[in-house]
Amino acid sequence: MKLLVSPSSPEEAQRSLAADIIDVKKPSEGSLGANFPWVIRAIKAMTEKPVSAAIGDFDNKPGGAALAAYGAACAGADYIKVGLMLNDPAAAAEVIEGVVRAVKDDFPEKYVVIAAYSDYERLGTISPFDMTPLAAAAGADFAMIDTGRKDRRSTFEFMDTEALTRFTAMNRDAGLGTALAGSLVFEDLPVLKRIDPEIIGVRGMVCGGDRNATIREDLVARAIAEVR
């Protein structure tokens, strides 16, 4: 299980370098808010570790999602993540297919991560379980769960351990890796180890509990130690 930490700036990234994957996002723009390409480039230049970039929470705008994915890949991201803020499976498939093609046509070595939300019922968006077969069919690499509305409610409040374990197993059967995120806390780590996704994503955990605060190097070190 790898630890992904999500800084919003090169200064925060400098404090996140103990993580396995450095994830570039802009928390003020949503769950998977996209940051600027020059921020991705600057953070990529700081480390030899894999860099991930969120490109946004997309409704039915496959062209916009594809172009954003291509831009993130060109800026240096090794993992490109898109969130599905929609509820129509056909529209979700079009977004996923556009993102995968935009990345894989020119950058086949890079990873595409498709995210649905643990709180999909309150958002009225596609279920993670309905997203997985679409992601697999399109040739994505990872299926992810995050919280879509950032109000400090955890993924575990919306999906229990059994559901997350089933999601992880479903992904493995489909040839996908699993990434789990969404207001995770240190106390969740033992359960997450049992679920055994390939990646867990955190920000608030290493900001002292508030994703809008600043990443703390000591908490990143604690998180990576406990994941190990």
TrEMBL record:
Active site feature: 25 (schiff-base intermediate with substrate), 81 (proton acceptor)
Enzyme class (EC, first level): lyase
Keywords: Lyase, Schiff base
Lyase keyword on record: yes
Metabolic or biological pathway, per its Swiss-Prot or TrEMBL entry: Cofactor biosynthesis; methanofuran biosynthesis
One of the protein's GO biological processes: methanofuran biosynthetic process
GO molecular-function term, one example from the UniProt record: carbon-carbon lyase activity
EC number per UniProt: 4.2.3.153
InterPro entries documented for this protein: 4HFCP_synth, 4HFCP_synth_arc
Catalytic activity annotation: 2 D-glyceraldehyde 3-phosphate = 4-(hydroxymethyl)-2-furancarboxaldehyde phosphate + phosphate + 2 H2O
UniProt record similarity statement: Belongs to the MfnB family.
Matches recorded under NCBIfam families: PRK02227.1-3 (NF002575)
Function comment: Catalyzes the formation of 4-(hydroxymethyl)-2-furancarboxaldehyde phosphate (4-HFC-P) from two molecules of glyceraldehyde-3-P (GA-3-P).
HAMAP family named among the record's database cross-references: MfnB
Record protein name field: (5-formylfuran-3-yl)methyl phosphate synthase
